Amino acid sequence: MAVIFKKSKGLTDTEQHYCPGCTHGITHRLVAESLEELDVLDRVIGVSPVGCSILAHKYFAIDMCEAAHGRAPAVATGIKRAQPDGVVFTYQGDGDLASIGTAEIVHAAHRGEKITTIFINNAIYGMTGGQMAPTTLAGQIATTAPNGRDPNHCGFPLRVSEMLATIDGAVYVERVSVDKPANIRKAKKAIKKAFEIQLSGLGFTFVEVLSTCPTNWGMNPADSLDWLRKNMIPYYPLGNLKSPKEDR
Amino acid sequence: MAKTLMKGNEAFAAAAIKGGCRYFFGYPITPQNELPEYMSRELPKAGGCFLQAESEIAAINMVYGAACAGARVMTSSSSPGIALKQEGISFLASAELPCVIINVSRAGPGIGGIQPGQADYYQSTRGGGNGDYQVIVYAPASIQEAVELTANAFETADYYRNPVMILGDGMIGQMMEPVELRAPKKRELPPKIWALTGTRGQRSHNTIKSLALEPDDLEEVNLKLKAKYDVIRKNEVQYEAFHLEDAEIVFVAYGTVSRIVKAVIEELSSLNIKAGLIRPITLWPFPFEVFDTLSSKTKCVMSIEMSLGQMVDDVKIAVKGRVPVEFYGRSGGNIPSPEAIVEKTKEILGGAE
Hints:
The complex is a heterodimer of chains A (248) and B (353).
Chain A: H1 24-37, E1 44-48, H2 56-59, E2 63-66, H3 72-82, E3 87-93, H4 94-100, H5 102-110, E4 116-121, H6 151-154, H7 160-165, E5 170-177, H8 181-199, E6 204-210, H9 214-217, H10 221-235, E7 239-242
Parallel strand pairs in A: 1-2, 1-3, 3-4, 4-6, 5-6
Antiparallel strand pairs in A: 5-7
Helix pairs in contact in A: 1-8, 3-5, 4-5
Chain B: E1 4-7, H1 8-18, E2 23-26, H2 34-42, E3 49-52, H3 56-68, E4 73-77, H4 79-94, E5 99-105, H5 121-125, E6 136-138, H6 143-160, E7 163-169, H7 170-174, E8 176-179, E9 207-208, H8 215-235, E10 239-242, E11 249-252, H9 256-270, E12 275-280, E13 282-284, E14 300-305, H10 312-319, E15 325-329, H11 338-349
Parallel strand pairs in B: 2-3, 2-4, 4-5, 5-7, 6-7, 11-12, 11-14, 14-15
Antiparallel strand pairs in B: 1-8, 6-13, 10-12
């Protein structure tokens, strides 16, 4: 019988701890498939964050380490400088990257570190139980914004991709979503592209993945996907924000 | 090899390169700036990489990354900068990653001042970061000793898979002395099979982690670390014992202050006061055992520090209540004067003349 789908060699057989309906599993698969297709699984080194995906190293069949909260881009910098022919990536959530780790992500981009960052934006702190993130939408309920985020009190949601796209060292910045098959295919293309550009040594590459958190949003998985489409995509528009010149 | 006149901070850097350091990540802070400046100039010539980080926090995490990748790596800073690195140092110790950290310490607390200080004894030996962990801490008293300890520190760090700190006060960093750079004493080191290099088709994937959510798992990690620390306590203690025989009073001092105390001992000798010195070279592990060998003639032990009393805690533990433990120190960037130490000694010993 013909095999029409199989698990990437970049993933282990370990059962994942992610909640039902969480989109981390999809994005893990896209990263693993991209690395496998580029034939770099034997020279890739990943850095997992503090957050739900801290245990990503159990699910990727590649060399990986954990980093302190927000510091993954600095850790990846040290790895890449010491292993310049390695393919190095960070996988970070929005609390990790957009709040405590803003200095590290901005300066990794600023230096044009030849690494790739996969940024999971689900508009909330997942692992700690649903607190407000810098990416939480105006009016969105969180455990530390019980009446909904009030921009007058704690600012408007941060658009990280737009911010990083202004930095010269960031050569590829794209925002994707994994809410439906068509978008998942686009996300895969963007992730693979980011790694290809890293391999060509052009600079820092960044893919923001709009993701769901049914548990902390208090919705079932299907409603979560609808909520993402109705609320997140209008504020965080999908598409390429920056590409190397020859790709434009 | 002929001796070269070198400033302490540059000597630290030159010794590190001699010790095999090829990666350096740092952030500007006085009084250690000549060290990263030297590295930015000289490390590329040795085939290495210098990178100025956006913060001390980023620098120590770059160290973590390069150490993960199996490199010999170092950072340097001064007291408030070391405070910022403590989270990273805790992670490095937890993940058993070798690296060298140089602290050219200054007076605190807070931003404090830029003159020399020894008020980092606690944050060096007690773990400024969270959790049950230890960092091996060396305290050089001369630039020659600084270069030897620094060059050897990379071997020690690799041997134990543990961060090593060199605590040189601002005086050591800023003064010039003749030095001879020597190759490090080699230890028998296994290959770094745990390092993250990419599997390269040679092995299954490696993971370097700090998280252990099950209490029993984490306790097992802590007990494994403790067993390592016990070996370090047994094998790595270094100190200098100076004129301990017949000493009525034994001073305890490290780094710059130990040199002042040696002058004080000469001065006291001319006043017919017999004084000795225990100079810890490793602050952790602390040389507790040497205090068990003190003469029955020793009436008092006095810790002299550029702080308001930090190492004195370890001195009290070491003396075990056998004789009174006294303290004299200056802070804020002031240096204890020989005259003041002599006066304090005379006051304590009372009619010793």
